[in-house]
C-alpha cells in the first residue's frame, strides 16, 4: 500500500512538472517522461478543445495566460497586450496556442505545416503569410480583432475611456505586428501600460 502511494505521488509530480513546462518543445525524452508527455498532450488537447469551443476570444491556458473573454481590469488588459508579443524563448514560434484559431483561419494551413515552415525553413509569420499570398497586415488585423473584445469590455464598463481604448488597440496592434514580423533577434518589448 505504501509503495502504491509513493508511485502515485511520483506520477503526480511528473505530470505536474510536465504540465508546468507545457509549451516548450521537448526532444530526446526518456521512456518515463514519454509517458507523462503523452498525458500532458492529452491535457493540452482538452485545453485546445475548450479554447476552440470558446471561439477566437480565448487566449492561452498557460500559467500566466489571460483569457480575452475574462479581462475585467486594466491590469489584466496590460498583461494581455504583453502576451500578444509572444514568448521569445520559443523561437520564431513564439507560442501559437493563444492565437492558433486565427492563424488557422487566416493562413489556411495546418499547425504542423506552420511548424515546418517556421522550424525547418526559418520563416516568421509574415514570411509564411507572404508565401501563401496573404498580406501580413491581414494577419495582424485579424489577431487584433480577436483580442479587441477585452478592450471593448473595459470601455463599456467605464474602466477606460475611448481615448485609452484607442491607445490600447494601437498597443495591441504594435505587439501583434512585432510577433508576426519578429526576426528572431530583436528583444521583446515590455508593455507596462499606457504612458500618462
Task: Walk me through the structure.
The protein is mainly alpha-helical. It folds into 2 domains: 2-53, no CATH class; 68-181, no CATH class. Helices cover 61% and strands 0% of the residues. It contains 8 helices and no strands. Helix 4 (100-107) packs across helix 7 and helix 7 packs antiparallel against helix 8 (162-181). The radius of gyration is 19 Å and the shape is elongated. Residues 1-65 have low confidence and may be disordered.
Average pLDDT level: 74
Query: Distance between the terminal alpha carbons, to the nearest Å?
Result: 62 Å
Radius of gyration: 19 Å
User: How would you classify the helix and strand content by structural class?
Assistant: mainly alpha
Q: Which spans have pLDDT < 50 for at least 5 consecutive residues? A: 1-65
Give the helix tally: 8
Order of helices and strands: HHHHHHHH
The largest sheet, given as strand count, sense and whether it forms a barrel, is: none
Which outline best applies? Answer: elongated
Tell how many strands the DSSP assignment holds: 0
Query: Strand fraction band?
Result: under 5%
Number of domains: 2
**Considering DSSP H and I runs of 4 or more, what fraction of the residues is helical?**
55-70%
Amino acid at each position: 500500500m505504501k509503495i502504491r502511494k509513493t508511485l502515485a505521488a511520483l506520477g503526480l509530480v511528473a505530470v505536474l512538472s510536465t504540465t508546468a513546462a507545457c509549451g516548450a518543445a521537448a526532444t530526446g525524452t526518456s521512456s518515463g517522461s514519454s509517458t507523462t508527455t503523452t498525458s500532458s498532450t492529452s491535457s493540452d488537447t482538452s485545453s485546445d478543445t475548450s479554447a476552440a469551443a470558446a471561439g477566437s476570444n480565448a487566449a492561452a491556458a498557460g500559467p500566466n495566460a489571460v483569457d480575452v473573454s475574462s479581462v475585467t481590469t486594466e491590469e489584466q488588459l496590460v498583461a494581455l497586450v504583453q502576451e500578444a508579443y509572444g514568448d521569445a524563448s520559443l523561437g520564431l514560434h513564439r507560442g501559437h496556442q493563444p492565437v492558433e484559431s486565427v492563424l488557422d483561419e487566416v493562413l489556411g494551413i495546418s499547425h504542423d505545416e506552420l511548424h515546418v515552415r517556421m522550424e525547418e525553413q526559418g520563416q516568421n509569420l509574415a514570411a509564411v503569410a507572404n508565401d501563401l499570398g496573404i498580406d501580413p497586415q491581414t494577419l495582424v488585423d485579424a489577431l487584433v480583432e480577436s483580442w479587441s473584445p477585452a478592450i471593448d469590455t473595459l470601455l463599456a464598463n467605464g474602466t477606460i475611456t475611448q481615448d485609452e481604448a484607442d491607445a490600447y488597440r494601437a498597443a495591441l496592434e504594435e505587439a501583434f505586428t512585432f510577433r508576426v514580423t519578429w526576426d528572431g533577434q530583436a528583444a521583446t518589448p515590455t508593455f507596462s501600460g499606457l504612458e500618462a
